[in-house]
Amino acid sequence: MNLPFIQPPQVDWASGAFADSPVLRKSTRIVDLAGVFADEPSRRMLPGEQVVYDVEMLNTSPTEGELYTGVTHLYPGCVGGEYFMTRGHFHARREQGEVYFGLRGTGLLLLQDEQGVARFEKVFAGSVHIIPGFTAHRLINTGAEVLSALAVWPAAAGHDYAALANGFRLRVFANNQNIEVREVQNG
Ligand code: PA5
Ligand code: NI
Protein backbone atom coordinates (compact mmCIF):
# COMPACT_ATOMS: atom_id res chain seq x y z
CA MET A 1 0.00 0.00 0.00
CA ASN A 2 1.14 3.49 -0.71
CA LEU A 3 -0.93 5.59 1.66
CA PRO A 4 0.29 9.13 2.38
CA PHE A 5 1.13 9.99 5.98
CA ILE A 6 -1.09 12.96 6.61
CA GLN A 7 0.51 15.96 8.30
CA PRO A 8 -1.80 16.94 11.17
CA PRO A 9 -2.16 20.46 12.57
CA GLN A 10 0.39 21.31 15.25
CA VAL A 11 0.24 23.40 18.36
CA ASP A 12 3.22 24.93 20.13
CA TRP A 13 2.48 23.88 23.72
CA ALA A 14 4.53 26.75 25.12
CA SER A 15 2.61 29.50 23.35
CA GLY A 16 -0.60 27.91 22.05
CA ALA A 17 0.19 28.96 18.48
CA PHE A 18 -1.17 26.68 15.76
CA ALA A 19 1.01 25.83 12.76
CA ASP A 20 0.39 24.21 9.37
CA SER A 21 -3.36 24.61 9.52
CA PRO A 22 -5.93 27.25 8.55
CA VAL A 23 -7.28 28.92 11.67
CA LEU A 24 -10.21 31.18 12.42
CA ARG A 25 -9.43 34.13 14.71
CA LYS A 26 -11.71 36.22 16.87
CA SER A 27 -10.64 39.13 19.06
CA THR A 28 -12.81 40.32 21.94
CA ARG A 29 -12.12 43.93 22.90
CA ILE A 30 -13.07 46.20 25.79
CA VAL A 31 -15.87 47.66 23.66
CA ASP A 32 -17.38 44.19 23.18
CA LEU A 33 -17.63 43.55 26.93
CA ALA A 34 -20.27 46.06 28.03
CA GLY A 35 -21.88 44.94 31.27
CA VAL A 36 -19.46 42.05 31.83
CA PHE A 37 -17.26 43.65 34.50
CA ALA A 38 -18.68 44.93 37.78
CA ASP A 39 -17.38 48.48 37.29
CA GLU A 40 -18.94 49.64 34.02
CA PRO A 41 -17.65 53.27 34.26
CA SER A 42 -14.07 51.93 34.58
CA ARG A 43 -14.58 49.75 31.51
CA ARG A 44 -15.74 52.79 29.52
CA MET A 45 -12.59 54.69 30.56
CA LEU A 46 -10.36 52.10 28.87
CA PRO A 47 -9.58 52.22 25.13
CA GLY A 48 -12.43 50.38 23.41
CA GLU A 49 -10.09 48.77 20.88
CA GLN A 50 -7.91 47.17 23.56
CA VAL A 51 -8.04 43.39 23.07
CA VAL A 52 -8.95 41.41 26.20
CA TYR A 53 -8.73 37.96 24.58
CA ASP A 54 -8.10 36.28 21.24
CA VAL A 55 -9.43 32.87 20.22
CA GLU A 56 -7.81 30.87 17.42
CA MET A 57 -9.73 27.82 16.21
CA LEU A 58 -8.95 25.04 13.79
CA ASN A 59 -11.25 25.27 10.80
CA THR A 60 -13.40 22.20 11.53
CA SER A 61 -16.73 21.35 9.93
CA PRO A 62 -19.59 22.46 12.23
CA THR A 63 -21.59 19.27 11.94
CA GLU A 64 -23.04 17.06 14.70
CA GLY A 65 -20.39 14.70 16.05
CA GLU A 66 -17.40 16.87 15.09
CA LEU A 67 -15.07 18.38 17.69
CA TYR A 68 -13.85 21.97 17.71
CA THR A 69 -10.33 22.78 18.92
CA GLY A 70 -9.37 26.31 19.90
CA VAL A 71 -6.87 28.25 21.96
CA THR A 72 -7.87 31.25 24.05
CA HIS A 73 -5.18 33.85 24.76
CA LEU A 74 -6.42 35.99 27.65
CA TYR A 75 -4.26 39.05 28.24
CA PRO A 76 -3.27 40.38 31.68
CA GLY A 77 -5.15 43.39 32.96
CA CYS A 78 -7.98 44.64 35.13
CA VAL A 79 -11.17 46.65 34.82
CA GLY A 80 -11.79 48.57 38.04
CA GLY A 81 -9.56 46.06 39.86
CA GLU A 82 -11.41 43.03 38.42
CA TYR A 83 -9.12 40.72 36.47
CA PHE A 84 -9.55 40.37 32.72
CA MET A 85 -11.78 37.40 31.93
CA THR A 86 -13.73 35.82 29.12
CA ARG A 87 -17.43 36.56 28.78
CA GLY A 88 -18.24 33.00 29.87
CA HIS A 89 -21.14 30.83 28.80
CA PHE A 90 -23.31 27.77 29.15
CA HIS A 91 -23.45 25.59 26.08
CA ALA A 92 -26.70 25.97 24.15
CA ARG A 93 -26.88 22.17 24.30
CA ARG A 94 -26.56 22.11 28.09
CA GLU A 95 -25.58 18.43 28.35
CA GLN A 96 -22.43 18.95 26.26
CA GLY A 97 -19.12 19.16 28.13
CA GLU A 98 -15.68 20.48 27.18
CA VAL A 99 -12.02 19.97 28.09
CA TYR A 100 -9.57 22.82 28.76
CA PHE A 101 -5.79 22.38 28.95
CA GLY A 102 -3.70 25.15 30.53
CA LEU A 103 -0.71 26.05 28.33
CA ARG A 104 0.92 29.17 29.86
CA GLY A 105 0.30 31.84 32.41
CA THR A 106 -1.73 31.57 35.60
CA GLY A 107 -5.38 32.04 36.27
CA LEU A 108 -8.65 30.48 37.27
CA LEU A 109 -11.40 28.58 35.53
CA LEU A 110 -14.72 29.60 37.06
CA LEU A 111 -17.36 26.88 36.81
CA GLN A 112 -21.00 27.42 37.74
CA ASP A 113 -23.88 24.96 37.58
CA GLU A 114 -27.51 25.68 36.76
CA GLN A 115 -28.35 26.08 40.45
CA GLY A 116 -25.78 28.90 40.68
CA VAL A 117 -23.23 26.86 42.67
CA ALA A 118 -19.76 28.06 41.62
CA ARG A 119 -16.23 26.78 42.07
CA PHE A 120 -12.73 27.59 40.81
CA GLU A 121 -9.97 25.44 39.32
CA LYS A 122 -6.41 26.77 39.10
CA VAL A 123 -5.15 27.11 35.51
CA PHE A 124 -1.43 26.76 34.71
CA ALA A 125 0.80 25.08 32.13
CA GLY A 126 -0.21 21.42 32.18
CA SER A 127 -3.52 21.76 34.04
CA VAL A 128 -6.40 19.65 32.69
CA HIS A 129 -10.01 20.70 33.23
CA ILE A 130 -12.96 18.43 32.57
CA ILE A 131 -15.97 20.72 32.29
CA PRO A 132 -19.10 18.60 32.72
CA GLY A 133 -22.35 19.26 30.92
CA PHE A 134 -24.78 21.77 32.48
CA THR A 135 -21.82 23.87 33.69
CA ALA A 136 -21.03 27.45 32.65
CA HIS A 137 -17.35 28.32 32.31
CA ARG A 138 -15.18 31.43 32.28
CA LEU A 139 -11.39 31.95 32.23
CA ILE A 140 -9.85 34.62 34.49
CA ASN A 141 -6.25 35.83 34.16
CA THR A 142 -4.89 36.50 37.66
CA GLY A 143 -1.25 36.71 36.52
CA ALA A 144 1.03 39.24 34.86
CA GLU A 145 1.51 37.16 31.68
CA VAL A 146 -0.80 35.98 28.91
CA LEU A 147 -3.02 33.07 30.02
CA SER A 148 -3.41 30.58 27.18
CA ALA A 149 -5.62 27.51 27.28
CA LEU A 150 -6.52 24.96 24.64
CA ALA A 151 -10.13 23.78 24.52
CA VAL A 152 -11.87 20.88 22.79
CA TRP A 153 -15.65 20.85 22.61
CA PRO A 154 -18.46 19.33 20.52
CA ALA A 155 -19.29 21.39 17.45
CA ALA A 156 -22.97 20.85 18.23
CA ALA A 157 -22.66 22.37 21.74
CA GLY A 158 -23.18 26.00 20.74
CA HIS A 159 -22.92 28.97 23.12
CA ASP A 160 -25.62 30.47 25.32
CA TYR A 161 -24.37 33.82 26.58
CA ALA A 162 -27.79 35.21 27.48
CA ALA A 163 -28.39 32.75 30.33
CA LEU A 164 -25.63 34.48 32.32
CA ALA A 165 -26.42 38.04 31.28
CA ASN A 166 -26.48 39.00 34.97
CA GLY A 167 -23.04 37.51 35.44
CA PHE A 168 -21.59 34.66 37.44
CA ARG A 169 -22.01 34.27 41.19
CA LEU A 170 -18.33 34.99 41.92
CA ARG A 171 -16.06 37.82 40.81
CA VAL A 172 -12.27 37.98 41.17
CA PHE A 173 -10.34 41.16 42.00
CA ALA A 174 -6.74 42.18 42.51
CA ASN A 175 -6.21 43.44 46.06
CA ASN A 176 -2.60 44.58 46.48
CA GLN A 177 -0.68 41.33 45.88
CA ASN A 178 -3.68 39.14 46.70
CA ILE A 179 -6.56 37.61 44.78
CA GLU A 180 -9.89 38.60 46.32
CA VAL A 181 -13.09 36.71 45.53
CA ARG A 182 -16.39 38.53 45.97
CA GLU A 183 -19.80 36.92 45.96
CA VAL A 184 -22.54 38.58 43.95
CA GLN A 185 -26.13 38.12 45.08
CA ASN A 186 -27.83 38.35 41.65
CA GLY A 187 -25.23 36.20 39.81
O1 PA5 B 1 -15.37 26.92 23.89
C1 PA5 B 1 -14.97 27.58 24.86
O2 PA5 B 1 -15.46 27.47 25.99
C2 PA5 B 1 -13.86 28.57 24.62
O3 PA5 B 1 -13.26 28.37 23.39
C3 PA5 B 1 -14.45 29.97 24.72
O4 PA5 B 1 -15.42 30.15 23.72
C4 PA5 B 1 -13.40 31.06 24.68
O5 PA5 B 1 -12.57 30.95 25.80
C5 PA5 B 1 -14.01 32.46 24.69
O6 PA5 B 1 -14.89 32.60 25.75
P1 PA5 B 1 -16.38 33.10 25.50
O7 PA5 B 1 -16.95 32.23 24.42
O8 PA5 B 1 -17.08 32.93 26.81
O9 PA5 B 1 -16.29 34.53 25.04
NI1 NI C 1 -17.51 26.35 26.11
Can you describe what's shown?
With 187 residues, the chain is mainly beta. It is built from one helix and 15 strands. A six-stranded antiparallel beta sheet has the order 3-4-5-13-8-11, with no helix packed on it. The termini are far apart. The mean pLDDT is 96. It binds 5-phosphoarabinonic acid and nickel (II) ion. Residues 28, 55, 70, 72, 86-89, 98, 137, 139, 151, 153, 159 line the site of 5-phosphoarabinonic acid (PA5).
List the helices and strands and how they pair.
Elements: E1 10-11, E2 18-19, E3 23-29, H1 40-45, E4 51-58, E5 67-74, E6 78-79, E7 82-83, E8 98-104, E9 107-113, E10 118-123, E11 128-131, E12 135-141, E13 147-154, E14 170-175, E15 178-183
The chain binds 5-phosphoarabinonic acid (PA5) and nickel (II) ion.
| Cα-atom radius of gyration | 17 Å
Strand content: 35-45%
Structural class: mainly beta
Which whole number gives the mean pLDDT?
96
Numbering strands along the chain, what is their spatial order in the largest sheet? 3-4-5-13-8-11
Poorly predicted ranges: none
The number of helical runs is 1
Helical amount: under 10%
Oligomer: single chain
Separation of the first and last Cα atoms? 59 Å
Structure, briefly:
The protein is mostly beta strands. The protein has one helix at residues 40-45; strands at 10-11, 18-19, 23-29, 51-58, 67-74, 78-79, 82-83, 98-104, 107-113, 118-123, 128-131, 135-141, 147-154, 170-175, 178-183.
